[in-house]
Amino acid sequence: MNESGKNMDTMFQAWKNWVKTTSDENLRNIYENLQNPDRRTSLENLARRYKRFGIVGLLMVPVSLCYLHTGIFAEPYNVIISVSLMVYFAICAAMDFWLFRGITGIDIYRESVSEVSRKVRYYRRKHLQFITVLVPLMIAVLTVMFISQFDNITVLTGLIAGALVGLVIGLTMLSKFLAEYNILLNP
Amino acid sequence: MISTYDLSADLQAMMREMWLHLRFKICSAWSHLCSMVETFTPEMSVADRKREVFMMIMKEYNPLISKLAYSYSRSRSDYDDLCQDIQLNIWKGLQTFRNESEMSTWVYRVSLNTCVSTIRSQRRNTLNKGENSLLATLSDTGEDAENMERIEELHHLISKLGPEDKAIINLWLADKSYEEISAVMGMKRNTVATRLRRIKEKLSQWMLNDE
């Protein structure tokens, strides 16, 4: 047996021999912590987040109709923008509810580890793919907004400022998502 | 509504057998849970019994849960979150446990499924400045310095593995047989053996590169 093999074996043995004891007081604390009715697992929190975003997206569909009558956008842009936003939010809601359904469908009690791992990887990949679909859609809607307000410098300035703030927030969120999913996309 | 008299004798026998099998499964699962509680008395409420069973499971398996959570964490906060998630999932899933598998297999499945479905951000996976090594914050058993160093080194190498590979090596380190590993992982025995060999090769290679 070579040197590295011996070292690996001693490390494996050290790991196997390591005993992490749990005192009776710790056990009581574990049980008491579980009695908090608001305690949720990370997976449950993730599912709730998708559900919340789905509901918000769904509520935004009728709200998008407001652009038809506010007078900010002239015809025919008001119709185009309203319909585009409705489609955008409807897609957002559908994607979030689909992810919610998928995440809640994971049964950690009966499914094997490789199955759960595959599902989690699948839904996280889908999440990223959905982002790559939604970003161009939003860019298209914003472009139509810019074109419609090309001669109105006040509204145009507001749109550009809003778009820049949104872009910074979006890129920050995206970098967080990418950092989080990196380990799953390249296991 | 279909009357049982209309059914053939074979079908009736099959249904009777299925009903007996179902009753046996329910009874054996219940007696298994009850047998785990030495202090079980008929006067105990369902909630009390659940609590007792949970405490028994924790007493027996919490050291294993701690090791699993340790291998999937790099910071104390990650470790604590993961431990709590696993404990919560075991508590919630206790009623779903049927005697179809060993209790240890079920605990491993729930624990590892929690670990693989809870991947936190890379930023949180690094130790904070001024924070001691994770093992130093966990160790309360008076491990000698040399062993601590070996465990930390192995933890560092294991942390480079993907979630599934981590699960396989953890099960192997817990002295689980290939059959048990394949039952928890949902893989064929030969696949487990091949992957385990590759994991060990990877770990050896990384250790040489680190040196």
The class by helix and strand makeup of chain A works out as: mainly alpha
What is the H-and-E element order of chain B?
A: HHHHHHHHH
Low-confidence spans of chain A: pLDDT under 50, at least 5 residues?
183-187
Overall outline of chain A: elongated
Structural summary, described in words:
The complex is a heterodimer of chains A (187) and B (211). Helices cover 78% and strands 0% of the residues of chain A. Chain A has 187 residues and is mainly alpha-helical. The two termini of chain A are 30 Å apart. The longest helix of chain B is centred in the first third of the chain and has 27 residues. About 6% of the residues of chain B have low confidence. The interface between A and B is large, with 46 and 62 residues.
Topology:
The complex is a heterodimer of chains A (187) and B (211).
Chain A: H1 3-17, H2 24-34, H3 42-63, H4 77-104, H5 113-148, H6 153-185
Helix pairs in contact in A: 3-4, 4-5, 5-6
Chain B: H1 9-35, H2 46-71, H3 76-93, H4 103-116, H5 134-138, H6 145-158, H7 163-173, H8 178-185, H9 189-210
Helix pairs in contact in B: 2-3, 2-4, 3-4, 4-7, 4-8, 7-9, 8-9
Keywords:
heterodimer; A: 187 residues; mainly alpha; 6 helices; elongated; B: 211 residues; 69% helix; 0% strand
How would you sum up this structure in a few lines?
The complex is a heterodimer of chains A (187) and B (211). Chain A is mainly alpha-helical. Chain A has helices spanning 3-17, 24-34, 42-63, 77-104, 113-148, 153-185.
